[in-house]
Amino acid sequence: MNRRRFEELLVSCITEHKESTYRLAYSYVHNKEDALDIVQEAIQKAFISLNTLHKPASMKSWYFRIVVTTALDFLRKRSRVQPVDDEVLLTLGLESEDHYHNLDLEQALEELPFKYKSVIVLRYFEDLKIEEIADILGENVNTIKTRLYQALKLLRVKLKDDSMEEVRQHA
């Protein structure tokens, strides 16, 4: 297959999965502009490295892997910068535009290590199959199944602990 055909398939893939890739990037950074930057950078990387894709059938997982890697790279770069918490932003009058209800599940998900969070997000928020997740994350299927099981177990424990703490506070 020639380069032009691969480019056409990539454009179709990007267009078809634009909402999913944005949600995926947003799940890592929780900021609209940063998520858009990540998606844009991932698109650039995909076009640049298109010659590394050998099977058009695996384009979706290949592209999602680029998005995940780009989001992780972004977080690694950002972790070198000392973040400012929300209270400081409020006192400075620089409150973020990204508002969402702080649900117990969101908080518990945020506290998961990346290897577990990635599997949960890809499986339940992007509705990908275990095999696709394994391909995206470059792991074998059994590793992904184990991580998914462990992540769900950690979430259950965390949510149970949080609800028990609420009961104690209101007692």
TrEMBL record:
Which parts of the sequence belong to the RNA polymerase sigma-70 region domain? 14-80
Q: Which UniProt keywords apply?
A: Sigma factor, Transcription, Transcription regulation
Top-rank taxon, per record: Bacteria
Taxonomic lineage of the native organism: Bacteria, Bacillati, Bacillota, Bacilli, Bacillales
The GO terms this record gives for MF are:
DNA binding; sigma factor activity
Tell me the ranges covered by the RNA polymerase sigma factor 70 region 4 type domain, including all copies: 104-155
> Which organism's genome codes for this protein?
Paenibacillus aquistagni
PANTHER family xrefs? RNA POLYMERASE ECF-TYPE SIGMA FACTO, RNA POLYMERASE SIGMA FACTOR SIGV
Which BP terms does GO give this entry?
DNA-templated transcription initiation
Name the chain's protein.
Answer: RNA polymerase, sigma subunit, SigV
Family listed: Belongs to the sigma-70 factor family. ECF subfamily.
Signal peptide, first to last residue: none
Under NCBIfam families, the record lists:
sigma70-ECF
